[in-house]
Amino acid sequence: MTEVNPGYIELDEEMSSKELDSSPINLLEKIKQEGRVWDDLSEEYGVENPDPPWRISLESTCDALAGGYWAPFNICLPKDERKPVMADDKKIDSNERRWEEDKLVDEHYADVPFPERQLLALAHSMIRRGLIDENELAKKMKNVDKRLNIGYDD
Amino acid sequence: MSDDHDHEHEHIHPPAPMVDEVSEFEVLEIAVRELAIEKGLFTQEDHNQWTDYMHTLGPAPAARLVAKAWLDPEYKKLCVEDGVKASLDVNIDWVNTMPTKFGTPSDYCNLRVMEDTPTLKHVVVCTLCSCYPRPILGQSPEWYRTPNYRRRIVRWPRQVLAEFGLQLPEDVEIRVVDSNQKSRMIVLPVRPEGTEGWTEDQLAEIVTRDCLIGVAVPKPGVTNNAKRPVRKAINPYKH
């Protein structure tokens, strides 16, 4: 665990130096093109819940990834009140995640409804930050799909 | 009522409809979460704690706070002066009930209750991201997160409120309040006419999420938020 922003680094400088590689990711592009969104599924099946059942889990993943730490850059705080916090490279600060979500949605996922776009943006951020790998995510998805649609091997 | 009747009754109602297929997005959500746990980014227990907490959230406590404030001038005063303390009366503890025990990573423990008057209307936004008083109001709606709302409500509040169906007279001042990581806001709207003699429960029913954000005002008979289409911003959002 390392201390970040020990010297109250200016937000603009820090954010610009942490520009995310927002180039498209093939796996996520494929899901964007072929995935069935909740708006369509709920209409087809006559379900009235406005949110997919996995939305709460997604929100929990975002909060768990933030790890309970305050934002390293405290971007919404006045400059004189920004404080250094403890963080590590396994966490994604909530503000950074939201900024990246805005950028990624704008560039790639603008036509995808919410919360599907939030999920695609989170996966995109995690891959580009090196927290997970595109190939292992594809492999894991195959595994999950098999479990849910076919079941476990006897 | 006999057991036979109960048995027959069970067969009269068909089961509630359900989505009988697994979407790629559902698979992606599970895969991302499981990989994160396998890599030690967080634990299953961390995730369970957040999920349990999230399931307790919704707009009901904030609606109850407003209804109580309408009925009790002293409580209204407390709401305006100390929203966090007033929240305790609707069973929301901004500090100690979170999984972290010191608030959440994205919900700072400072609630401000913005009181409307007949000539002053508040509306809440987070221009920088999507800060929202989740502990007392639940998850933010999709439109609240969009750059479209965040940019435009500040520049053209009267026109954007009109897009939400809220047309205010010219003599009503509109004050846009910007949420941030230090403070979260809810709106305490003016109690509408036609609610004289109502109970706290009746009043709480008409205080919808949109009224608490400030893009709607309470009306007798209206207990749901209108569904909003989300329009893409004309000019892309740049940092």
Give an overview in words.
- The complex is a heterodimer of chains A (154) and B (239).
- With 154 residues, chain A is mostly helical.
- Helix content of chain A is 53%, strand content 4%.
- A two-stranded antiparallel sheet of chain A has the order 1-2.
- In chain A, helix 5 crosses helix 6 (116-128).
- The N and C termini of chain A lie far apart (42 Å).
- The model of chain A is unreliable at 1-17, 69-77 and 82-87 (pLDDT under 50).
- Chain B has 239 residues and is mostly helical.
- Helices cover 41% and strands 9% of the residues of chain B.
- Chain B is built from twelve helices and four strands.
- Chain B has helices spanning 3-12, 24-38, 44-55, 60-71, 73-81, 83-88, 134-137, 142-145, 147-155, 157-163, 200-205, 209-213; strands spanning 111-115, 120-125, 173-178, 184-188.
- Chain B has a two-stranded parallel sheet.
- In chain B, helix 4 (60-71) crosses helix 5 (73-81).
- The longest helix of chain B is centred in the N-terminal third of the chain and has 15 residues, at 24-38.
- The N and C termini of chain B lie far apart (66 Å).
- The model of chain B is unreliable at 1-5 (pLDDT under 50).
- The chains are: A mainly alpha (154), B mainly alpha (239).
- At the A-B interface, helix 3, helix 4, helix 5, helix 6 and helix 7 of A face helix 2 and helix 3 of B.
Which features characterize this protein?
heterodimer; A: 154 residues; mainly alpha; two-stranded antiparallel ribbon; 7 helices; 2 strands; 4% strand; globular; disordered N terminus; B: 239 residues; two-stranded parallel sheet; 12 helices; 4 strands; 9% strand
SS element count, helices of chain A: 7
Q: What structural class results from the helix and strand content of chain B?
A: mainly alpha
Shape summary of chain B = globular
Share of helix among residues of chain A?
40-55%
Counted beta strands of chain B:
4
Tally of strands of chain A: 2
Form type of chain A = globular
Major sheet details of chain B: 2 strands, parallel
Number of helices of chain B: 12
Q: What is the rounded Rg of chain B?
A: 21 Å
